[in-house]
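Pipeline run #58 for the internal structure catalog. This entry was flagged by the ingest filter as a single-chain record with no existing model, so it goes straight to prediction. Upstream metadata was stripped on purpose; only the residue string is passed forward. Reviewer on rotation: M.T. Logging verbosity set to normal.
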Amino acid sequence: MSASSKYWNIWQISLASTGGGYKHTLVPTAREFFQKQVANSQLEDTQTALLSYFHATTADTTAALAGLCLRCYISESILKACKKIDYLFGSEKHFNYQELLPFVLNDDGETLIVLGSDRKTQFVLNNNSETHTPTYKFFSMRILQTFKIDSQRRMSLDNWVYLQTKQNPELKDFLSENGFKHLSDWALLNRARPKHLERLSARERRLLEVFHAVYRRDRLQQHQKGARRCPDPSKLQLQEMLHKLQDLDIIIHSTIELMKEIKQVATQLRHYDIWSYREPLEIQDQDTGNYTPRPDLPTDSLQEADIEDQEFVDLFHEQLKLALDSAIKSEIRDLITKLEKSKNYAPFAKKFIPGLQLYYCDQLSLKEITPKLGMTSWDQARRILNPGELLSKVRTSTVQQLLNSILKKALEKGLTKIPPEPEYLKTLLVQIEAFCDREIFTEAAEEIRAGKNRSLDSFYADQLRLYFQQHS
């Protein structure tokens, strides 16, 4: 699809079994308007021209058709946003991006709509240029209605679509019910990190710090005894928290009130957990005042050389998870086979997975695992389990599988030859390695190196625990 044709093709939900749950449909009235009135505009770019027409003082057919063109453009950005949200939730969710589409991809691509002079009221424009209040409001119009075109520091329209899609009330309710309900309040509070504290008030931070001082301390002892679930705080724990808060000049009169306040903090964290990327997608330069895309967010280009098609973005995210899952299974299987064939370590082959479970699920050190598996020393446990070696092998396998998937797609698109040119292959490999490290393996390696007080909650660790559940 060409850049211009995005303004006259609209993405809509498809009930057909093929097509990923969506389809794009030609909107002839939008194409005719674009080619006659926008293509020859003297304004600096087509999007600026369309926004200018749409927000004109006179709410007429021209404004409505300009809005229709923008609604077509927005539909693709909404679709991308749903796929990105699906990706950000990782593998432990109980939904897919197709289930998000009905909340936000609901434009019929036909109805002409204009805004009132206050830019807050929507009106349907009929064939006689008469207006009436719509019985159903399209989400795409809500996005256009709230997009500030007269702000010098505004977001790009694409980023505004992404932000508004994530903040759609119905979609947020759906995600809250289906995305993170498996985590209890206590699990959320227990795993909170410094980045979460930044979003809390001073009082909430003190509450969370005291909760950690008491609850985390006891959880470490429970971990050593094999406990996995986060139980409700005991009365003794709550009393100790009250005393510690009193020392900080925070007076709470009962454990019931304390529980209520702690749960409110958990609600804050749950909201943050679901929308850990909810902050503005662009940051302000302190010197110039201009806004630029945040470097820590996934971008549409993914920084892959010479790859601009959105299909590659989706393919990278989709295939990365598939490759990681496949790599974990194959590398664990190969390491067990290697142990079985070893003269010295064959008896420990059956203890390989239980050992990894103690490491990643119970977060025991190799020294603590040694007696539990009947090993003679820490060094023996390291040689048999060696989490670092497993991570390295999984990384190599994941990169190779992802490279094969992307090369296959590149060949289909005619972006490379058979065999690929060495320079193209080298550049693509470097980009894939960087992508895999950024998304998964850098964090996984850092938590292994963290030592005794490590917290194994990376995506890689989560996938390993999912593997253990499936093979228990």
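catalog note: Residues 185-274 form one domain.
catalog note: The two ends are 47 Å apart (CA to CA).
status: ready for reviewer M.T.
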